[in-house]
Design brief:
The complex is a heterodimer. By secondary structure, chain A is of the alpha/beta class. Helix content of chain A is 37%, strand content 24%. In chain A, the strands form 2 sheets. Chain A has a 6-stranded mixed β-sheet with strand order 6-7-8-3-9-10, with helices on both faces. In chain A, helix 3 runs parallel beside helix 6, helix 4 packs across helix 6 and helix 6 packs parallel to helix 7. The model of chain A is unreliable at 1-6 (pLDDT under 50). By secondary structure, chain B is α/β, with parallel strands linked by helices. An 8-stranded mixed β-sheet of chain B has the order 6-7-8-3-9-10-12-11, with helices on both faces. In chain B, helix 3 (112-123) crosses helix 4 (129-142) and helix 5 packs parallel to helix 6. Chain B is built from 10 helices and 12 strands. Classes of the chains: A alpha/beta, B alpha/beta. At the A-B interface, helix 7, helix 8, helix 9 and helix 10 of A face helix 6 and helix 7 of B.
Chain lengths: 274, 335
C-alpha cells in the first residue's frame, strides 16, 4: 500500500486488490480487476474511463451497494465491515453519493422538505425544535443559492434538472459526510448550469474537508475539478497521478488516445487517428 | 460567392398543445447554408434546436405545424408543399435528417441490407436486389465501413458502428443537405470522432453538399462547423463564423455559453467557468422584449419592453441585443 506518501496526508478511503466478477464459467466478466487506490482526506479525485470500463461498478462497491468478489476496502485506515444492515447504515453516514440522473434520485411522493428533514434526522437532529430545523434547511438551501421558501411544499418533479442537482448538494451540506461520490453529476444537465454545480461541489469539499470522488467520462471536467486523476480501462487503473501530470503529459497509450480524441478548441483536433 | 444550398427566410413553426395553446418553438428564423459549408446550431436544451431541424425538412406532423416563412433548397421552394409530396420528392433526395439517438431506430429483427432495400424501393420501384446490394456496398466502402455490415443484424454492431450505419443509410439517395441532430451524443470519444470523420468524408466525396450540425457540445461544434448559430428560446441570438462566435461572442447569452466550455487543455484550470443562472423561458407565453432579459447580467428596464431585432455587423455576423457591439464589449471588460 502507498502508506509512504501519506505522511502528512491522511488516507480516507483505500483499497487493495479490489475485484468484482459478474457471472461465472464462460460468461465471466471481470468488471473491476484487482485495483489498488488510496484517496486522501480533503482531496478531489476523478476516476475517468469510457463506458464499460468499470467506473460505476467500483463506485457501487465503495458505497457498499454490491459486495466485492475479492480484495479489501479500508475506510480511515480500518478494514471496512458492512456485513450487517446496521453497520451499513453507520457507514452511509460517512459516505454519500450524487448520481447522474437527478430525476430518478428522489422519491416522487415525498416533498422537498422531507428530503432535507431526513438528512437532519440522519445527523441526529430528530429532537431539534421546528424552528431550528427550518433554520438548518434555509442555511443548506442558501448554500446552493436556492430559496427555501420557494421550495417548501413542492415536489421534486416541479424543479429543473439543475435545481434538483443543487438540492442534492444541499443534502450533502446537511449530512456532512467524509466521502462524497459523485457519479457523472453534470452529464444530464445543461452546460450553462454545469459550472454552478461544480463550483458548489468544490466549495463544499474545501469547506468541510470532505473527500470528493468524481466519476466521469469527461476528461475535461476531470481536469477542471480534481487534484488527482485515475484513468480506468477495462477494470484496471492504467494511469494515476496529479491532474496536470496525467492530462497534460499522459504516459500511457490509452490515456494519450483518450485525450487525443476529445475535441479541443485551442489545439487542432487530429481526425486521422481513427 | 458559392451556391446557396439551403435558404430559410423568416421560418416560424409552432406546436399546438392538446389544450389548443400555441407554442412558437421556431420564431422567425432565417439562415443560409452555402455549398460545401457546415452550419452548427448551438443552444441549451429546450431552445428549439431540434424543432428547427424538424421544421427545415418541410415535413410537418402534429403537434408541429407550419405557420409562415420560406424554405428554399437549391432554388426550389418547399414551404407549404403537400406532406405526401414532401415525403416522395424531398425527404432523402433533397434533404435528409438524422434524429437524436438515430441508432435506436434500427429494428433488431432485420438485417441492415433490409433497411437499405426499404429506402431505395420506396423511390425506385423496379430495381433488383442485386443492384441495391451493389449500390449499398459501394457506398459503405467509400465511407470506410465494411460491406459485411450489410448482412448483419443491428445487435451485432457496436453503438458507434450503428450510428455510422444509420448515417450511411440516410445519404443513400444523395441528399443535398444533411441535418444531423446530436449524432454523437451517446457515444464515447473515440466513436464520436469516427462519426465526425465520416461526416467530413461525406462532404469531401460530394455525397452531400451541405451539413447542418446540431449539438450542445461546443468544443465539438467548433471543430465541425464553419458557421455557428446560437439559438435561444426559438430565436437566433447570434450568428457568425465558428472562430469568432466561440472566442469573441457578442451576445450575452453566447458569451455565457462560451464561458462554460470545458476542454482538457493547458490553461483550463486558470479560467473561471461562467454559468448562466436560471432556465430558458416557457414558450407558452414568452416574455415581451428580449427573451434573455430574465437571465442577463446587463439587463436594463428597456430590454423588457422593446422588441429586439437581429443586428447585422461586419463580417456576416449578427446578434440580437438592444445594445451596440461597443457597449457590450465595454460591459464585458468591466465584468
Amino acid at each position: 500500500m502507498a502508506e509512504i506518501r501519506s505522511l502528512e496526508k491522511k488516507s480516507c478511503l483505500s483499497g487493495s486488490g479490489l475485484t468484482k466478477v459478474f457471472g461465472f464459467g464462460n460468461q465471466k466478466t471481470v468488471a473491476v480487476d484487482h485495483v489498488d487506490f488510496n484517496f486522501y482526506e480533503g482531496e478531489v479525485v476523478s476516476i475517468v474511463g469510457e463506458s464499460g470500463s468499470g467506473k460505476t461498478t467500483l463506485a457501487k462497491m465503495l458505497l457498499g451497494l454490491i459486495s466485492s468478489t475479492e480484495g479489501e476496502i479500508y475506510f480511515q485506515g480500518k478494514k471496512l465491515d458492512i456485513r450487517t444492515q446496521r453497520k451499513k447504515r453507520e457507514y452511509w453516514k460517512n459516505i454519500q453519493a450524487i448520481f447522474q440522473d437527478p430525476f430518478s434520485s428522489y422519491n416522487i411522493f415525498n416533498k422537498i422538505d422531507s428530503v432535507l428533514l431526513d438528512c437532519i434526522h440522519m445527523r441526529g437532529g430528530r429532537k431539534f425544535s421546528h424552528a431550528k430545523k427550518v433554520e438548518l434547511m434555509i442555511e443548506a438551501c442558501s448554500f446552493v443559492n436556492l430559496k427555501f421558501e420557494e421550495l417548501t411544499n413542492k415536489y421534486p418533479f416541479e424543479l429543473s434538472g439543475g435545481q434538483m442537482q443543487r438540492l442534492m448538494i444541499a443534502r450533502i451540506f446537511l449530512l456532512k459526510p467524509q466521502v462524497l461520490l459523485a457519479d457523472e453529476p453534470t452529464s444530464m444537465i445543461d452546460a450553462s448550469s454545469r459550472a454552478t454545480i461544480l463550483d458548489y461541489l468544490t466549495k463544499l469539499s474545501k469547506e468541510t474537508g470532505m473527500t470528493t470522488i468524481f466519476i466521469t467520462h469527461d476528461i475535461g471536467l476531470a481536469y477542471y475539478v480534481s487534484d488527482t486523476v485515475y484513468i480506468m480501462e477495462r477494470g484496471k487503473f492504467v494511469e494515476s497521478g496529479s491532474a496536470d501530470a496525467v492530462i497534460l503529459t499522459p504516459k500511457e497509450p490509452y490515456t494519450q488516445r483518450l485525450i487525443n480524441d476529445v475535441p479541443k478548441i485551442y489545439e487542432a483536433w487530429d481526425l486521422s487517428t481513427v | 460567392m458559392s451556391n446557396v444550398m439551403l435558404e430559410v427566410r423568416e421560418l416560424t413553426t409552432k406546436y399546438v398543445t392538446r389544450f389548443g395553446e400555441d407554442i412558437y418553438a421556431v420564431d422567425h428564423v432565417s439562415l443560409k447554408v452555402e455549398e460545401g459549408k457546415t452550419l452548427g446550431i448551438a443552444g441549451e436544451s429546450g431552445c428549439g434546436k431540434s424543432t428547427l431541424a424538424l421544421s427545415l425538412m418541410g415535413y410537418y406532423f402534429a403537434p408541429l405545424h407550419y405557420t409562415s416563412g420560406e424554405i428554399i433548397i437549391d432554388g426550389r421552394n418547399i414551404s407549404g408543399m403537400n406532406p405526401n409530396d414532401v415525403r416522395k420528392s424531398i425527404l432523402g433526395k433533397e434533404i435528409a435528417y438524422i434524429p437524436q439517438a438515430a441508432m435506436n431506430a434500427l429494428n433488431p429483427t432485420r438485417k441492415i441490407i433490409h433497411f437499405i432495400e426499404d429506402v431505395i424501393k420506396e423511390h425506385e420501384l423496379y430495381i433488383t436486389k442485386k443492384d441495391i446490394y451493389d449500390r449499398a456496398r459501394k457506398l459503405f466502402e467509400t465511407l470506410g465501413l465494411s460491406a459485411d455490415v450489410l448482412q448483419k443484424y443491428p445487435v451485432e454492431l457496436s453503438g458507434g458502428m450503428k450510428q455510422r450505419t444509420v448515417i450511411a443509410i440516410s445519404v443513400l439517395l444523395l441528399p443535398k443537405v444533411l441535418i444531423a441532430d446530436e449524432p454523437s451524443s451517446a457515444l464515447d470519444v473515440t466513436s464520436q470522432k469516427m462519426v465526425i470523420k465520416m461526416l467530413r468524408k461525406l462532404m469531401e466525396t460530394g455525397l452531400i453538399s451541405s451539413l447542418i450540425f446540431i449539438t450542445h457540445e461546443l468544443p465539438l461544434l467548433y471543430n465541425v462547423a464553419d458557421d455557428i448559430m446560437v439559438m435561444y428560446a426559438g430565436q437566433i441570438v447570434e450568428h457568425g463564423n465558428a472562430k469568432q462566435t466561440v472566442f469573441d461572442p457578442i451576445h450575452p447569452y453566447a458569451k455565457g455559453l462560451m464561458g462554460s466550455i470545458i476542454v482538457p487543455e493547458k490553461g483550463l484550470r486558470d479560467v473561471k467557468l461562467t454559468a448562466i443562472p436560471g432556465v430558458p423561458p416557457n414558450l407558452k407565453n414568452p416574455p415581451s422584449g428580449c427573451r434573455f432579459a430574465e437571465r442577463c447580467k446587463y439587463v436594463q428596464p428597456e430590454c423588457k419592453t422593446h422588441s429586439i431585432n437581429l443586428n447585422e455587423v461586419d463580417g456576416g455576423r449578427a446578434y440580437r441585443c438592444i445594445f451596440s457591439e461597443e457597449k457590450l464589449r465595454e460591459a464585458y471588460q468591466n465584468g
